[in-house]
Amino acid sequence: MTNLKVHKNNKKDKTLVKVRDVTFNDGSFNLIAGPCSVESYEMLDEIASLIVKNGGKLLRAGTYKLRTSPYTFQGLGQEGIEILHKVGKKYNLVTVSEIPSLCELDLFIEKVDIIQVGTRNMENYALLEALGKTNKPIILKRGQQATIEEWLLAAEYILKGGNDQVILCERGIRTFETYTRNTLDLSAVLALRDLTHLPVIIDPSHGTGRSEMVSSFVEIAHFMKTDGAIIEVHKEPENALSDGFQAIDFKEYERLVNKTWKK
Ligand code: PEP
Ligand code: MN
Prior knowledge:
By secondary structure, the protein is α/β, with parallel strands linked by helices. It is built from nine helices and ten strands. It has a single domain (about 10-260), classed as Alpha-Beta Barrel (TIM Barrel), CATH 3.20.20.70. The strands form two sheets. Strands 9-8-7-6-5-4-3-10 form an eight-stranded parallel sheet. The chain has a two-stranded antiparallel ribbon with strand order 1-2.
């Protein structure tokens, strides 16, 4: 493992991932917030306005949803991308969305600031190779069943192509526990500090599947000096078209931001 491009031994400086006025791995904590899915222009506009009002710079929103069941909401697809692009421009927010496959690469390169590779695609090597030939920042989520080594090797596919703008995201792994949706592996976050020069963030929304745990984990991530967190926020979580059970509402978002940053 030690001869890999992702490995800390092979690069003495931390890799800064930069998008406009946002930098990962410079000691700052970047909170990426937004709905699991874009549901309409109005709903995304309202969330973006909340984020800007509270000093946030990054907006996440799913567009092509990779759902476990084909009968659940599949996302607005290209229309969702257009909405995210428009709202991002209006509020000057750095946008994040998950790419479903290689077929959508050109669209994502043109319209999304940071391309997310979701847990299900962590082993999609053709996609990782193609992303390696771009200069887009990538959030690479950990596969649900991936070891830290497998995850780093997935990142290596991107770096090997020449793109070092990779942010690793711990989003929980499958264990025997069912109380939480996944088991958020915070020891992996510490392990990565020794292993790689890439920035690391956590996703406590998918990592726990429980809205009541999200803010505490953001505070823990902040305390641990990770490079940030990505969380799901919705105006009415109980009416969300996807993952409402793990989204925090606007009030909780404001409480979290004010408690963690504006001491
Ligand atoms: C998401 O961020 O909306 C998502 C589906 O994440 P993951 O790939 O971690 O499940
Ligand atoms: Mn989700």
